[in-house]
C-alpha cells in the first residue's frame, strides 16, 4: 500500500494534481490523503474581544475547509471508481509546509503530489511559491509537482538531471527506479555542462554507481551544453526528447538548488511544463528508517 499526500486549496489547479495522481497510480494499491490547511486572518477590531473574534473566524474557516474536503472527496469517488484506491481527508489549522511535514511522519507518506500555479507576463516564475517552499522544507519525502492544466500521460520517457559530483544512495534513487519500473520507462540521465569536458574520476565513479543502481532499467547518458541557464537547458532537452517527467535530487549545489535560485528573468521560460519529481537528500537516514519499519511490522490477526 502506497500512502500519498495531496495538498489542495480546491482550485482547478490542485484538482488537476489529484486527477494526475489517481491516473498515475491507477493499478496500484494507494491511500490518498487530501490535505487542506487554513489560517484565518484576524481583523483585530477594537470593538470586539480579540479571543471571541478569533474564535468566530477560526470556526468559520474550519467549517469551510472540512466542507470543501467533503465535497471534493464526493466528486473524486464519483468520477474515479477504483477498488485499489482509498481516501482520507485532513483539515488543519496550520501553515501548509508545517502540516505537510507533520503529515508525512504521522501517515507514513511516501510521496507528496501538488499542483504548481502558473502566472502571466513578468510575474511568470519557475513554479508556485508554495511548491518551492515545500520542496525546500521537506527533507524526507519526494515531491511531485504537476504543472497547471497538465493532463496525465504515461511517463515512458523520464529525464534525471545530475552533474555526477555527488554519490547517490540506493534509497535516494528508489522513487526514480520504482516509477521507471511501473511504466517500463526509459531513464535519460542528463548532464548539463557550461562547457563540455571530460568527467573527473569522482564523476565517473558516481556515474558508474548510478548505472548500477538503475540495474535493468533502460537508460542512456546525455551530456549537453548549457543554454543561458540550467532551467532553459533542461526545458529544451525535455521538449526535444519528448520527456514526460523530469527528476532530480535536491541537495546543496544541486541542479534543483540552482533552479530555485536562478533570477526570474532566466527561469521565465521554464515554468514546469512537465511534471517535476524532486527527491530529497536522504543519505543513510532512509536505511535506518526502513530497518526500523521492518523491526516493527505488525502482523494482522
UniProtKB/TrEMBL annotation:
Gene3D superfamilies the UniProt entry points to: HUPs
InterPro entries given in the database record: Rossmann-like_a/b/a_fold, Universal_stress_UspA, UspA
Domain UspA, first and last residues per copy: 1-147
Family listed: Belongs to the universal stress protein A family.
Protein name, entry field: Universal stress protein
